[in-house]
Amino acid sequence: MSVNNNSPVVQFYNEKTVFITGATGFMGKVLVEKLLRSTNVAKLLLLIRPKKGVQTEQRLKTLLSSAVFDRVREIDPALLEKVDSVTGDITEESLGIDDESERILIDSVNVVFHCAATVRFDEDLTKSVAMNVEAVLAILALAKKMTNLEALVDVSTAYCNCDLKNIDEEIYPPPGNPRGVVDACKWMDSDKLNSPEMTKIMIGNRPNTYTFTKALAENVLLTEGKGLPIVIIRPSIVTASWKEPFPGWVDNFNGPTGVMAGAGKGIMRTMYCKRSCVADMVPVDVCINLTCVLGWRIATQPSTSIPVYNCTSGGINPITWGEVEIWGLEVLIRNPYEGVFWYPGGSYKENWYLNRFFQLLFHYGPAHAVDLICRLVGRKPFLVKISEMMQKSTKALEPFTSNSWSWSNSNVIKLEKELTKEDRDVFGFDIKHLDWKEYLEIYVQGIRKFLFKEDPSTIPTSKRNLVLLYWLHLITQGLFVLLIMYLLSKLFF
């Protein structure tokens, strides 16, 4: 394989053995693909748990057969043979790794990327603590045994200190005692602890269990990771890829992806959002490029403290939610999805109660009507379930669509300036030149291709269908206005 051997970062990863947790997740897949395609790593060891009766080996085969690795297969299919699985589970003691696998990790691993976490905002507290805090303790315990460890990169979140408005690249005091919270989750009744009332008491001024446990995890790294080559990356809202492995690549409906998917299908008509607030999005390939560079950086320039890098866009190249609303709708009209339920439209609501009213009117109401018709004609109802999932998702997003934060990026900016031209070519993470209008076009096309599996050749047909829906939308609005006028005339005249 031909790689850029003039790149110091590429040279660093030459013949390295890398251990990755969370490799089956969104960021993890892109990280594995990037290391395979752009470096000469010796081995990638992925922590994978058996799931729903599917063994680890089969899950690895499924992972490597996914479209994200198509470019790797084009270059050299043999590169995928560098990837091996380690059976384990981040929620189990010692990561659930058997003695033989642990010995291999201890003797061979040079770089650790800890990407595994639950990113669900509404996750039960006990599960969030197990996956986001206890797992970090287990990773540190394992790392301390590794005889050839050069770097440990932890993927945190820019929102772990969202109780502050101005967030520097440093580890802040935790919102509780991490060990105490872990112990409480073990001896207290989980049903009581996961109740909304008790969870609210535990997480305090954090909006959800995700941000709370991520803040605890950073403190664990600080207090328990002394002497280890640790570095922290804090991405904000991670979205579809900008360039790599393919423009617009995305594999989940989380965050803005679900919003644009729902809006494009005509299902989402309203969302609580402050238009002036910054939509701090960062493409996944930008995050992964920085993540790879940080492994090299901490290994070649050790630090007595834990360096933190805020991987955010708002302070460098901001876009507001209002701009996402306007530009996103334009893109959805130019790149319509197949099977659209209604003409894309609606708007953000800056008043929570008004948004709730429109949800009942345009989300729950039509969903129940459609499902009733489905039952009457003997078909399986589906829209209420989709609508409820959509409402749950947008509600979890509300703290982030109705607030803005200011993150310092001095460490990121300084690091980018220190890179060689070769490193920038391979691992560029400068987001200054990202054109958000162009990116939203890439994003919507990626949702269409990679999530909905819709061929670009169907766009002309989808556009014709959209024209029909547009006129139907106008006729419906006209009839509604006439109905209101008729009712008013009957009431007052």
List keywords for this structure.
alpha/beta, 493 residues, globular, two-stranded parallel ribbon
Q: What does the overall shape look like?
A: globular
Largest sheet: 7 strands, parallel
Give the helix tally: 19
> What's the total count of β strands?
13
Radius of gyration: 24 Å
Which class of secondary structure composition applies to the elements? alpha/beta
Low-confidence stretches: none
Distance between the termini: 82 Å
Q: Could you explain the architecture of this structure?
A:
With 493 residues, this protein is of the alpha/beta class. The protein has helices spanning 8-13, 26-38, 56-64, 70-75, 99-108, 125-145, 178-187, 190-193, 196-203, 209-224, 256-264, 284-300, 321-334, 352-376, 383-401, 410-418, 421-427, 436-451, 459-492, and strands at residues 17-21, 43-48, 83-87, 111-114, 151-155, 166-167, 230-235, 237-239, 270-272, 281-283, 308-311, 347-349, 406-407. It has a seven-stranded parallel β-sheet with strand order 3-2-1-4-5-7-11, sandwiched between helices. A two-stranded parallel sheet has the order 6-13. Helix 6 links the parallel strand 4 (111-114) and strand 5 (151-155). The longest helix has 34 residues, at 459-492.
